[in-house]
Amino acid sequence: MTALFYTLGCKVNQYETQAMRALMEAAGFETGAYEPGVIGCEGVIVINSCTVTGESDRKLRQLLRRCRRDNPGAVLVLTGCMPQAFPEQAARLSDADVVLGNASRRSLPEKTAEFLSHHRRIVEISSHQERFEALEIEEFQGRTRAFVKIEDGCNRFCSYCIIPYARGRVRSRPLEDLRRELESLAAGGYREVVLTGINLTAYGQDLAVSDRPLSLCDAVETACAVGGLQRVRLGSLEPDMLSESAVGRLAAQDRLCPQFHLSLQSGCDETLRRMNRRYTTEEYRQVCQMLRRAFPDCALTTDVMVGFPGESEEDFRRSLAFVEEIGFSKVHVFAYSRRPGTRADRFPDQVERTEKARRSRLLTQVCEASRRRWMEQAVERAAASEEGVEILLETRRADGCLEGYTRDYLPVKVAGGGVPGELIPVRLTALGEEAVWAVPLLDRD
């Protein structure tokens, strides 16, 4: 029997989907990806949900209805953050035959078999585990880089965020477990891994070695020491949790990719205060400067929200100016979406949808110009240097060109030989619309 998977949300969810696929394969299922629009599936369809916004829940309900309509003979399983955060609401989603919370993922094969045997609806949503959940993968199907989950949970309780309720408190992966999984991935041919977590920078708060608390630096050093891995990349980081000593330790690892996603959310101090973020714009600026000193020409990326409750036009303009000042290489711009169950949902002065859309357009224009300047500077540096850059080939386009990324996550298109998953040296030649064109430095014939 087949088990098809569909993932909503973050890199952690994507890792967990891969781990659930491995569990189902061990139980004898053939696994694959579910594509909305598939009709007549008679196997199992697993939807790994996200609940970060109210809009996420709306899309999930819509997906469940469509999936049930198109595949009446399938066993439909709902798991992930939505049922964990809102168990009563999830239990009422009658299109799902099996509903499992985040803490019940490992029982997926067992509960699927139970439903197939008795055809009675199953809802199992237990409390969060106190320790890091022992999930492991040996491959990351369909990808040339592997996401590796090293931390779960969050203790911060930002006023707009439901995730601490969906994920529980901080729990970190033991270093030996991490080393073992990374060695397996390296043996399988992966050359780049991305360390991910719900609050990645909190890694190690619940662990200690020789009475010393661990930190993200310990996980990075462990990953960079694994033979065969040539690149280690980090997921999203909280800026107030990066000290100068930590940045110094990170800079000593030459396999660590010089690209840092520093969560910003707003460039206005008053908005940051209402969000319950734990830094000011000045503190954020200092972290950016610290990283750029330690990693010259590194890429800084971020997320910025517009239209948070109470954000005035002046607040928005301050945020816009700050984002432009920092000069990010890429920014995910998004409008605030009310999330029932959070404090911000009850805040006064909710911003109108049309106004949020206007602010999103203005900020996106600034961010796209900043990204263009960053890409131009990369081409200029390449033109002034005799050395090329290394890219990880990811996908082959219909025209035969290969697409890949540099260590600082510059998108590159190259004509020539090579296969996805391979690291090759190239020379950057010209700036295109969405990527930089390059030619291989070595004759690969």
What does this structure look like?
The chain is of the alpha/beta class. Helix content is 35%, strand content 23%. The protein contains 13 helices and 21 strands. The strands form 5 sheets. It has a 6-stranded parallel beta sheet, with helices on both faces. A 5-stranded mixed beta barrel has the order 17-18-19-21-20. A 4-stranded mixed beta sheet has the order 8-7-9-12, sandwiched between helices. A hairpin with a 2-residue loop joins strand 10 and strand 11. The mean pLDDT is 94.
| Rg from alpha-carbon coordinates | 22 Å
Biggest sheet statistics: 6 strands, parallel
**Order of strands across the main sheet:** 2-1-3-4-5-6
N-end to C-end Cα span: 43 Å
| Envelope shape | globular
- Number of contiguous helices: 13
Fraction of residues in β-strands: 15-25%
Question: Mean pLDDT, rounded to whole units?
Answer: 94
The assigned structural class equals alpha/beta
Query: Helical residue percent?
Result: 25-40%
The beta-strand count equals 21
Q: Which oligomeric form is depicted?
A: single chain
Which blocks of ≥5 consecutive residues have pLDDT under 50?
none
Summarize the structure in short.
The protein has 13 helices and 21 strands. The chain has 445 residues and is α/β, with parallel strands linked by helices.
Sequence-ordered SSE layout with sheet pairings:
Layout: E1 2-7, H1 11-26, E2 30-33, E3 44-49, H2 54-70, E4 75-80, H3 81-85, H4 87-91, E5 98-100, H5 108-118, E6 122-124, E7 146-152, H6 163-167, E8 171-172, H7 175-187, E9 192-197, E10 208-209, E11 212-213, H8 216-224, E12 231-234, E13 236-237, H9 244-251, E14 259-262, H10 269-275, H11 281-294, E15 299-306, H12 313-326, E16 330-335, H13 353-383, E17 389-396, E18 402-405, E19 411-414, E20 423-431, E21 436-440
Parallel strand pairs: 1-2, 1-3, 3-4, 4-5, 5-6, 7-9, 9-12, 13-14, 14-15, 15-16, 19-21
Antiparallel strand pairs: 7-8, 10-11, 17-18, 17-20, 18-19, 20-21
